[in-house]
Design a protein that fits this description.
The complex is a heterodimer of chains A (197) and B (331). Chain A is of the alpha+beta class. Chain A has 2 domains: 20-96, Ubiquitin-like (UB roll) (Roll); 105-195, DNA polymerase, domain 1 (Orthogonal Bundle). Chain A contains 6 helices and 5 strands, in the order E-E-H-E-E-E-H-H-H-H-H. In chain A, helix 2 packs across helix 5. Classes of the chains: A alpha+beta (197), B alpha+beta (331). Chains A and B meet through strand 4, helix 3 and helix 4 of A and strand 1, helix 2, helix 3, helix 4 and helix 5 of B.
Chain lengths: 197, 331
């Protein structure tokens, strides 16, 4: 969880009109060289150019969390990220969480707990949950973490912690109780460790 | 969104030079506010200067016992830093009271200071707004202003500054380090954000081309405790209706040091100097804390629908100060 693990890399070469640049992205383990209009968000690039429609466009303003993906292992709202500025980053979308036919433990837990109704927010919930579990394992505090908690040691994941840490993901079906249960099921399991890969 | 150029800066000097030569340029940090405003048409840069690869992402100990926080340190990393949690808990708490986990992973220290008001009229380009389009008027005065200012506003603008982090920094006497085309300078956080007056288009005293490179925290005074408390419409992930950042030292039942700042009430983090005057040397009692809050908030001029904020801020301040004065069970 280094703050900024990537030194400047070559790339960002502008095109003749000055409104497009090329970049390299490592998406779900596949390295891709792309040329994008500077206005393209990471979300639109994933959905419209690369066919990765798992990440959803809910509000497109960073308010709903449906577009959440992992950037260098950390969750982020892809609707607010200019694609060109992600040059060299590792992007994990919901399509990249499973290993072959084996679902990520959090995906499995969502199924077992029936933690969704319409499913539109689910990819964002999953990526956010995976990122949140990694943050908990790394000792990142939240608004409800006791101030006396020891920095650098994993945070005890109470239901209040899960609700607070998942508050950036809205669910209009109201599946929150089951989402909390699913995240709780995975905490202490492999999910938090895998998230940091 | 209008097409724009993109430059990935490899040095502070290059970034500043590029910005000085291009009036329509904007620095891109995390972009959580800027990109949103571009989608809304509020910001229409001709050039984005990406500063995210500059080596400004470290938190460094200073010889005097303070901290130097690089402008690119992510909000989540700053809130989690052991030095911040141990010595400046008010700052960690303020950061964690803002936005969401995924936004805090993107948002930077410098960008947080420069985020724009969430006033609905400012964000809606079909409406007049003196901040966005000077001289067009302020519909918020008579319109939707429940979330807006009660202190320091003007006929021209009643917007509030939305950052939680800035409120804690104001109470901590932090300084903003700026690198401009001609010079480097340091501005206290309490002077960094402006009151709207007749030029609400300027949120801060930052000059064209200047880049925030760091925030500097003075050493935490021995014996002080600090806390941030925020009241909002939801339990999480909402802007402040009112918030309080407080740093307090009580010895033998007497207030020896007090720094207090309000958030959500004004166009800038509101450092409560009048309240501090009442607190200094006074007995650390609820009566003192209430008199201090009243001394500050007596100047409030609420709008039609936001008078509740004055009471809310008063109660928050009394509660936070009383908690800090009570025997230690937490910070």
């Amino acid at each position: 969880m280094e703050p900024n693990p990537h030194p400047p890399e070559p790339g960002g070469a502008p095109s003749a009109d000055g409104h497009r640049s090329s970049l390299v992205l490592h998406i779900n383990g596949v390295t891709q060289t792309l040329t994008v209009d500077h206005r393209t968000t990471l979300l639109d690039l994933l959905r419209e150019r690369l066919g990765l429609t798992g990440a959803k466009k809910g509000c497109d303003h960073g308010q709903c969390g449906a577009c959440t993906v992992l950037v260098d292992g950390r969750r982020a709202n892809s609707c607010l990220l200019p694609a060109v500025a992600q040059d060299g980053r590792r992007i994990t979308t919901v399509e990249g969480l499973a290993e072959g036919e084996r679902l990520h433990p959090l995906q499995q837990a969502f199924l077992e707990r029936d933690a969704l109704q319409c499913g539109y927010c689910t990819p964002g919930q999953l990526c956010s949950g995976v990122g949140a579990l990694a943050e908990v394992a790394a000792g990142f505090p939240s608004h409800v973490t006791p101030p006396t908690a020891d920095p650098g040691t994993p945070v005890e994941l109470t239901d209040d912690e899960i609700r607070e840490r998942m508050s950036g993901n809205l669910c209009r079906c109201g599946a929150y109780p089951r989402i909390v249960e699913a995240v709780r099921d995975v905490s202490g399991g492999a999910g938090g460790q895998e998230a940091a890969r | 969104m209008k097409p724009f150029g993109y430059l990935r800066a490899t040095s502070v000097e290059e970034a500043v030079r590029a910005a000085a030569g291009q009036p329509g340029a904007r620095f891109l940090g995390g972009g959580t506010n800027l990109v949103d405003l571009m989608k809304l048409g509020v910001e229409t840069p001709r050039l984005l200067i990406d500063v995210t690869r500059l080596p400004l992402d470290r938190i460094e100990e200073l010889p005097d016992g303070g901290l130097r926080i690089g402008a690119l340190v992510r909000n989540s990393d700053l809130a989690a830093a052991a030095a911040v949690r141990d010595r400046y808990p008010v700052l960690s708490q303020a950061l964690l009271a803002g936005a969401s986990g995924q936004l805090r992973n993107i948002a930077t220290t410098g960008g947080n200071l420069l985020q724009r008001t969430r006033c609905l009229y400012f964000q809606d380009i079909s409406k007049p707004c003196n901040k966005r389009a000077p001289g067009t008027g302020c519909p918020a005065r008579e319109g939707v202003h429940r979330d807006l200012a009660v202190l320091g506003h003007s006929d021209h603008c009643v917007a509030t500054q939305p950052s939680d982090m800035a409120v804690a920094l104001a109470a901590l006497d932090a300084e903003v380090l700026l690198h401009g085309p001609d010079e480097e300078r340091t501005v206290p956080v309490t002077d960094f954000h402006r009151l709207p007056g007749d030029s609400p288009e300027r949120d801060t005293v930052i000059r064209p081309g200047e880049l925030i490179t760091a925030v500097r925290l003075p050493p935490a005074a021995p014996g002080t405790r600090s806390r941030y408390r925020k009241a909002r419409d939801r339990a999480s992930y909402a802007f402040a209706l009112a918030s309080v950042a407080a740093v307090l030292e009580v010895r033998d039942g007497t207030v020896r040091h007090a720094a207090l700042a309000f958030g959500g009430l004004a166009h800038r983090p509101w450092r409560a100097r009048a309240a501090e005057e009442v607190l200094h040397g006074a007995p650390a009692t609820e009566d003192t804390f209430a008199r201090a809050a009243d001394a500050e908030l007596g100047a409030a001029r609420p709008l039609r629908d936001n008078g509740f904020k004055v009471t809310l801020a008063r109660n928050l301040a009394v509660d936070v100060l009383a908690g800090l004065a009570a025997p230690a069970d937490d910070h």
